[in-house]
Amino acid sequence: MKINRKLVFTFLKIALTFILLYVVFSNIPLNDVWLILKQSNPFLLFLALVCFILSQLISANRLLQLFKWSGFDLDSKKNYILYLVGMFYNFFIPGGIGGDAYKIYILNKEYQWPIKKLTSVVFIDRLMGLIAIGILILIFCLFIPFFTTENLVWLLFALLVIGLVSSYLFIKWLFPSFLGITLKSVLKSILIQLLQCLCIVLLLSSISETDDYFKYVIAFLLSSVLSIFSFSGIGIREMILYQASTLLVFDSIKAVTIGLLFSILTAFVSLFGIYFHFNNTKIKDSKN
């Protein structure tokens, strides 16, 4: 009997999501989270939504620039549609091909653009985001008292230099054609992540007042890196925030609550991709 590896992988991701959520809510009363959610500030939630949408628009634009840099003349409007449908696939279709694979499939089908080259663009797009997250985590750690009191600031700078040099050498070795656009893409990625960090700050402010914003933001950024291991990042995000609350000493209930709120915002925006998914819009029809 042949085992469908894709189906097994999907099952494991969904199972991991439920296991992590069970562990989190075994330690944190769901009623406490619900009470905090009911008391949240609607205006600040709206501002958080705006920040998230802006981050996704810039993210889609970053991908478009990478496509154009690689010689793929994709229409801007259709790129945004493709990106939105990709978000829908990532969040609502755990057993599907995935948002990134969907983009590659559609562009190859409509334009016969080479899959290998498209895959390189999508991979570099993800890598730029990962580099930005690493940079921001190390910078934000400067605002955590532990690193200053233990005289570990030098370690943060050392890791930053090592990370940047390693990333540069990796891209130069395997993807040299993208070197010319790397700096611009990384700066845009930092802006994207800063908007998402601001989104977290607004979500946190909507449910409570605190001075520990950097702790929550660092935990959120760490959860973003590991989110690929669960369904839509759900479960992993809440678990990382919960565990970080013990390590960095901040409110675990608030941490889990903002994790859930961020998932809700992501689901809300991703849901708009359903129109273009079922409308079967052809990318090629709108090409300039």
Automatic annotation (TrEMBL):
Record Pfam families:
LPG_synthase_TM (PF03706)
Please tell me where this protein is predominantly located: membrane
* Keyword Membrane annotated: yes
Instruction: Identify the domain of life.
Output: Bacteria
Any one cellular-component term (Gene Ontology): plasma membrane
Record's bilayer topology term: Multi-pass membrane protein
Q: Any stretches that span the bilayer, and where are they?
A: 6-30, 42-60, 80-106, 127-147, 153-175, 187-207, 213-234, 255-278
Give the subcellular location.
Cell membrane
**Which controlled-vocabulary keywords does the entry list?**
Cell membrane, Membrane, Transmembrane, Transmembrane helix
Name of the protein in its database record: Flippase-like domain-containing protein
What is the originating organism of this protein? Flavobacterium franklandianum
